[in-house]
Amino acid sequence: VRPVDRCFRRLFIANRGEVAVRIARTCDEMGVAPVFAASAADAGAPYLEGREVCVLGPARSSESYLDVERVVQAAVQNRCTALHPGWGFLAENPVLAALCEQHGVSFVGPPAHVMALMGTKNPAKRAMAAAGLELIGGSDGVLASVDEARAVAAEVGYPVLIKAEAGGGGRGMRVARSEAEIESAYNEARGEARGAFGDDRVYLERLIEGGRHVEIQIVADKHGAAIHLGERDCTIQRNHQKLIEESPAPTLDEAVRRRTLAAAVDAARSIGYVGAGTMEFLCDADGVLRFMEMNTRLQVEHPVSEIRSGVDIVAEQIRVAAGAPLSIDQGDVELDGHAIECRINAEDPADNFRPAPGLIERWETPAEVDGELRVDTHVSAGYTVPPHYDSLLCKVIARGGDREAARRQMIAALGELVCEGVPTTAPMHAAILESAAFRDNDYDTRAIPGWPAGGS
Amino acid sequence: VAHVPTAPIGAPAGGGVAEFREEIERREAVLVERRAEVARGWGDKYIGRVHGKGKLTARERVELLCDAGTRILEVGTFVNHGVEFPGGLRSPGAGVVTGFGQIEGRWCVIIANDNTVASGAWWPRTPEKIQRAQTMALRLRLPTVYLVDCSGLFLPEQSRSFPGATGAGHIFKMNSLLSAAGVPQLAGVFGDCIAGGGYMPIISDRVYMTEQAYMVIAGAALIKGAKSTKITSLDIGGPEIHVHESGCADVRVPDDRALIDSLRAEVCRLPTSGADFYRGGVGAASPRFADRELASLLPPDHREGYEAEQVLARLCDHSLFWEVCPSVGREMICGVGRVGGLYAGFVINRQGLVDDPLRPGQKRPAGILYRGGIAKISAFSRACNDDGIPLVWLQDISGFDIGLEAERHGLLAYGSSLIYTNSTNTTPMFTVLLRKASGAGYYAMAGLPYDPVVQLSTCLSRLSVMEGRTLAIATYNTKLDDDFEIIASDPDEREKIADGMRDVEARIEKDMDPYVAARQMDTDEIVRMSELRGWLAALVEMSYQSPGHRRLKNPRIWSMHDLDLLVGGDR
Hints:
The structure holds two protein chains of two kinds.
Chain A: E1 10-13, H1 17-30, E2 33-39, E3 52-57, H2 68-77, E4 82-84, H3 94-102, E5 106-107, H4 112-119, H5 122-130, H6 146-156, E6 160-164, E7 173-176, H7 179-197, E8 202-206, E9 212-220, E10 226-238, E11 241-247, H8 254-270, E12 275-283, E13 289-295, H9 302-309, H10 313-321, E14 338-345, E15 347-348, E16 354-355, E17 358-359, E18 362-364, E19 373-377, E20 384-385, E21 392-400, H11 403-416, E22 418-420, H12 426-434, H13 436-439
Parallel strand pairs in A: 1-2, 1-4, 2-3, 4-5
Antiparallel strand pairs in A: 6-7, 6-8, 9-10, 9-12, 10-11, 11-14, 12-13, 14-21, 15-16, 17-20, 18-22, 19-21
Helix pairs in contact in A: 2-3, 3-4, 6-7, 11-12
Chain B: E1 7-8, H1 18-39, H2 44-52, H3 58-65, E2 73-75, E3 96-103, E4 106-113, H4 126-140, E5 144-150, H5 169-180, E6 185-193, H6 199-203, E7 206-210, H7 226-229, H8 233-237, H9 239-246, E8 251-253, H10 256-268, H11 275-279, H12 308-313, E9 320-323, E10 332-339, E11 342-349, E12 353-355, E13 363-365, E14 368-369, H13 371-387, E15 391-397, E16 399-400, H14 404-408, H15 411-424, E17 429-438, H16 439-444, E18 454-457, E19 462-464, H17 468-475, H18 491-511, H19 514-519, E20 525-526, H20 532-543, H21 560-568
Parallel strand pairs in B: 4-5, 5-6, 6-7, 7-8, 11-15, 14-16, 15-17, 17-18, 17-19, 18-20
Antiparallel strand pairs in B: 1-9, 2-3, 3-4, 9-10, 10-11, 12-13
Helix pairs in contact in B: 4-5, 13-15, 17-18
């Protein structure tokens, strides 16, 4: 990390666990004092030892990590001039970003209105299409009538998805597999959306079944500079929860990669994006990357890009939040070799991924090798995984000269991981990496290669 | 503190109340239908006649003049609505289209004679409607564009639109005042422009004429010998005369479209909007709680309460709001939020019951002006004016408190102080009649007589001195007891009094119809609930468009901070 001459003195970490430790590591290197937020459930955790901590409230996240006012108040009272939201919780809540702006706390992320724009469905897509990204075929915004739905569906081809413009969470969403189903799908989606959100506007999109999930890492500053740090393939998922990520995307056409990376950078610049962000795409059967949504935050899998590029994304985030330019140009970015990341959770993969909180009696991680093997974790022996939150224990990131070398290095590393007290998903990761389907790239988002228990 | 310490306001409403939504949708469907009716003018036959001459209709011209994909905000749509003139004639929109539109990104006031209604003639109230739009332009210093195609006064009714203080001639006085204030005015003459109408384009800074346009003091019909020599109005005052010989116009263009393009190019030469500068790097963002929900949050029955915070939460960006002086006058909420990224002040009435500060543990009805609330909004209004913050009044008000305590508190004086404040404010004020706008409450909260730049009504608005029930009680006062029950015991007598009271109520109820207010120009426009935020965002943006003519302080030096600190802050 290149030191910054002038930066924030104190930064509030409005998050917990692994990401809090990850952000603090960079803060330590930059000479910024991190102040950790904690709920009552996390307050005594070993990862907070020797750290400045502010207890936000009870274990329930709605009264601690998810309470916008408490979080900003805690940052202000602890005299923090910056706030890093991490991922999950409030990380993509534009109200937090706006409230920080109003109270003089620099939000480590994009401006609130840009985050709000990317949080909408059709306006976000329109902005990205205007910047040159390909979209999944569908209606141009909200449908005016069932006849329009029928006409658009005939044009883009069945099956199609009719989705509510408001809200989310899968409500107000219906699939139509043929023209016979379109009217009922349209009416049911509208009825459900009206009941749930008081807003019956719906739009239509072609339903792409399967395909691969590819995303592009962007970093931008406040002076109009933006760069990418390559793409990641996150096809291996369970219930939309990513399990394994890798870079480069192993099946992506080189011309498509080059074109989309450049377009993504232009798109970020065109909307005035600031900080780290990720554009998510679905790679359809034609090999085209079609924009789905933008995550306006640091992502769990960011180390995959860090280990290939040698760039500390968190450091760049903090620098640009303080008004400094990016420390690197696109020309400085060299993406070396192939990287794989495995997310290890305290869940029992043999028992339908049942969450397994509890005391970790023994904990040993493989030895880190600079630029080759990295373990990000907040866990140590004696740590109790609380039942209230996501059960991520650690991430193992391995880099090799090619995909096969990275894969072998990861399998070896997983073999050295010792966790006693709670079951982990490590055996599933090993099985996936060993499978022929993984090695041969013979999978899509519908099923987990090498693991029988179904995909997303 | 230089920060504007906004905080989250409002709560999810789960789509609101279905019955409210259905009733409001029913009423708004009528609104949409009536707007469409006005937009058709005198109908297809007259639209066809305009097209037959190779010309565009007034609404087509306005549409082309404004930036593609932007919404034109019409004011005065329902002036003369339902009024019948001699010969059974009607004048939809009083024969003129007025409103706000964006041209090359700049908000402008547009005034276009409706050539599908009696060839753009001026009816009774047409001059007043045009002057109202000019006043809005003057207050906000917005470039004003006249699309002239006017056959002159509707002569059978000339005595109602010619001689008075707001008669047609006062339009030209407004032209002069706009010019004197440095407001750019542009005129496009597309057709007839007869008699006094000629002054309107000529005072404008740039005057364009099409080959079908003429401007004359008197048309050929009044010129002796015109028939035998076959002289037309076009020969007397067409572009050949006025562009080249008299200099009364600047540029001749072949047709309507070329003229519209020229006007757009002219506006492009004016300064761009200052709004983005005043946003200070903050962009516009939707409220966290969808503004569409407004149409399902307000009970159509004006006696039912709701949470005023829920309304503010659906108007302010990110649903963030700084409530100023929250501990005083709980029956009112006042404070500051961003709309479309720009700061605006808001005053709104709480509904339902609030704590009575003089009787601990007891409640009293909100939606009424008491001493604390009046003092608070007075001070708040002055602070907005001091700081140059545009001020939005959201009325749902039954009136002033009445009775011995109210008089002892001197509400007449507190109210007068508020009226003085609002009367002398120069910061742009906008008033919305959410539901009730009754009696002196309507005055105190900057109703139309106090010159808000624009006043909007909803389909629920009820504008009156008093509710019908109250007037019925006042009228039959001598026949009623302490509880306002009929004293008489004779059934016939009782029946007669009850009938009489019902009649009074029904008559007042009919007059409270927002379309009656809009017809008489007692309100500027009726809007849908879901359009309210868009309107306010536009009006606030207009308020910041033209820097240099009014005080506009940055938040660091707002007197608002002093007010908040003095009332409740740490000392």
